[in-house]
Specification:
single chain; about 675 residues; alpha+beta; six-stranded mixed sheet; three-stranded antiparallel sheet; 13 strands; about 55% helix; about 10% strand
């Protein structure tokens, strides 16, 4: 591929060659407009796709081709609820039958699980959600906590012979699931566990796959033996027989329509003294013998046992982040492809100027494009670290369990908030076209709210980040020398003297920005640690929950943004192909400026940036936006998403789509354009 110019040579102004004399209604004009915008590509988009994919290149390529050629995956919108749910299941079955997802990937290559989630989410968010419950939450839990006696269940997961659900959250116990009411009481006489839901608040809630399709549930329950509570453990409970009939003692209520993702069959489920064999306890870490004697390899309290048995939530958060990123990539690709073809008033006074040439459009979309790239690069690094940490038999890896927890929580929250912003702003910048369901922003917006809530409310996850960080900080402070402690206190009390060194603050000074992000993180957590240092339990709760939540969230966000910055800097500056580095560095720089702008009050008030420097950030921001914009379509192509996967007419041939009566459906359109 001939590359005619470098990124640094791109003019900040809209290229005059893209002024179109007059727009006709020929559908071929749309591709011509995209080609004109991307007339002088500075990098090969296939290289960018390989860089972003990071691993599992063959799987990505084959899955994208499969999702693009099988018309079974063409979106349908005006569809009955029952049919929509069955469609999501059968689409998942098609992926399973073609080997794109397996529960055993967790034992061989966990990053392949995440790759499958990203690609699936682009096509059908409901299918992807059913996937994450079947293969990660249900399947992964049985695989990791079960033993040879559960092999029959595991063997039926990939084929969907055994469809499962994950019974953790209860109506009254979500983020405080450790206090759940469901019990599994051991009966020594019959060698069985008796699973019971004592109150309405104890019913399992928002159970994906539960309303229609699942025949098994991993029920998390308080394990009771002779009146002693041994903490939360997982028990396999059949909830339907082989004919799909609900099992005796099990009550399943269909939760019906939601604000989106209605292909997911969510349920609330309760148990009335349901008996299951002793062997149904997932017993890799804890066991109850026939005589009712309990043993466990998990050190510590009942809470420690809960964290161990619920450990699959960590990979679940990476799965959700992968789904969020797939959706964000799709939204940006759709918005950019449309913006390059939608002509409006130009210098001539006629409709001969693409809206992507307007600064208004660029300032809205380029920062989102930069964030999508940067978050994706960071996410792939976290996926890799998780895989190295979780796989047995690998070389010892330096990341601790606490660091894995913090990274999983942070990236899930950041990408979950991002897809909401990306989908909402992209919808707005595409005008009325963005409001049509077929153009995909509506499903993305609805799905983003699932990303913000499922497997941990994002703000609560940020509290988890702060809790883990403070625990680690306390350990470090106890082990620090007096000189090291003095250095920390100097950072905390003299930021203006030490940090800025007289600088006004430049948005182009990468090393300086990275440094103040690092110090911001330290200062905020030192401030938080100082506030809670001498608190008893009651005082700490009041401070944490009622008085200092702004500081808690701020500190956790600072950690997250610094983590993302560090992971991306290493990969872009040290590992990226030299052809890709110029544009990637610009995206990284633009991301860093948005981080500064979003917290500019803190940076000014703590003397990291002068008021003059803050004003200069706007100029740096506008320049980077203008420099990136001419490459935006090529960057969208770098996501590797095919037109068929995007599906949206405005990302393809929206003239043809509007030339006939289609009631907003895609089937006839696909027949015409494929």
């Amino acid at each position: 591929m001939a590359l005619s110019r470098s990124v640094s040579a791109v003019s900040c102004r809209f290229p005059p060659s893209l002024l179109i004399p007059r727009f006709s209604s020929s559908s071929s004009d749309l591709q011509n407009l995209r080609d004109k915008w991307n007339a002088n590509p500075a990098f090969d988009p296939k290289k960018m796709t390989a860089f972003l994919d990071d691993a599992n290149h063959e799987q990505h390529a084959k899955m994208r081709k499969f999702l693009s050629t099988d018309k079974f995956f063409v979106p349908r919108y005006d569809i009955p609820l029952a049919e929509e749910r069955e469609l999501a299941l059968q689409r998942l079955r098609a992926l399973c039958d073609n080997g794109f997802i397996s529960v055993h990937f967790f034992s061989t290559n966990p990053t392949a699980v995440f790759a499958a989630h990203e690609n699936a989410s682009i096509v059908d968010g409901a299918m992807a959600t059913k996937m994450t419950v079947q293969f990660n939450l249900f399947g992964g839990t049985v695989l990791k906590l079960g033993t040879a006696r559960h092999k029959q269940v595991i063997d039926g997961i990939d084929s969907l012979q055994n469809i499962g659900c994950f019974g953790l959250s209860e109506l009254g116990y979500g983020n405080n699931a450790v206090e759940m009411e469901t019990t599994a009481t051991y009966d020594k006489e019959t060698k069985e566990f008796v699973v019971h839901t004592p109150t309405v608040l104890g019913q399992k809630y928002w159970i994906t796959n539960g309303a229609i399709h699942a025949n098994y549930m991993v029920v998390f329950a308080q394990l009771m033996i002779d009146g002693v509570n041994n903490g939360i453990h997982g028990v396999l409970v059949p909830i339907r027989d082989e004919n799909g009939n609900v099992m005796p003692g099990v009550t399943i209520h269909d939760m019906g329509y939601k604000m989106g993702l209605n292909g997911i069959d969510n349920a609330k489920i309760s148990f009335d003294n349901v008996r299951v064999p002793r062997e149904n306890l997932l017993n890799k870490e804890s066991e109850v013998n026939e005589d009712g004697e309990y043993s466990t390899t998990i050190d510590g309290s009942n809470r420690a046992r809960f964290l161990k048995v619920a450990d699959q939530l960590l990979s679940g958060r990476i799965c959700i982040a992968s789904m969020s990123q797939g959706a964000s990539k799709a939204c940006l690709a759709i918005a950019l492809r449309y913006s390059a073809t939608r002509l409006t008033v130009g210098p001539s006074g006629k409709s001969d100027f693409p809206i992507l040439g307007y600064q208004l459009q660029q300032r809205a979309l380029m920062p989102l494009l930069a964030k999508t790239y940067i978050y994706d690069i960071a996410l792939k690094s976290i996926q890799s670290m998780y895989a190295k940490y979780s796989l047995p038999g690998r070389d010892v890896y330096t990341v601790s369990h606490r660091e894995i927890v913090m990274m999983c929580c942070a990236i899930k929250a950041i990408t979950g908030w991002h897809i909401n912003e990306a989908a909402t702003i992209s919808r707005e910048r595409c005008g009325g076209q963005g409001y049509l369901a077929a153009n995909r922003f509506g499903p993305a917006i609805a799905g983003s709210h699932s990303s913000m809530t499922a497997e941990g409310d994002n703000s609560v996850l940020m509290q988890k980040v702060a809790t883990e960080y403070l625990a680690d900080l306390s350990t470090k402070l106890r082990k620090s020398t007096p000189i090291a402690l003095a250095g920390l206190m100097f950072n905390a009390h003299a930021p203006g003297l030490y940090h800025r060194g007289g600088k006004a603050g430049s948005g182009r000074d990468i090393s300086y920005i990275r440094n103040i992000l690092r110090i911001r993180e330290q200062l905020l957590f030192l401030e938080l640690a100082k506030k809670i240092k001498d608190c008893d339990r009651k005082e700490r709760f009041a401070l944490w929950a009622e008085q200092e939540q702004d500081l808690v969230q701020h500190a956790a966000r600072a950690y997250s943004e610094k983590l993302i910055s560090d992971l991306c800097y290493e990969k872009i500056y040290e590992r990226a192909d030299v052809e890709l580095q110029p544009i990637l560095k610009k995206l990284y720089n633009l991301y860093l400026i948005t981080v500064l702008q979003d917290d500019i009050g803190y940076f000014i008030s703590n003397n990291f940036i002068t008021r003059k420097g803050a004003k200069a950030l706007k100029k740096d921001f506008n320049e980077l936006v203008a420099e990136i914009a001419p490459h935006s379509l090529n960057l969208a192509n770098g996501f590797g998403i095919t037109e068929e996967m995007l599906s949206a007419p405005i990302a393809r041939d929206w003239v043809t789509f509007n030339s006939y009566d289609n009631a907003g459906e895609m089937k006839e359109f696909e027949d015409r354009v494929r």
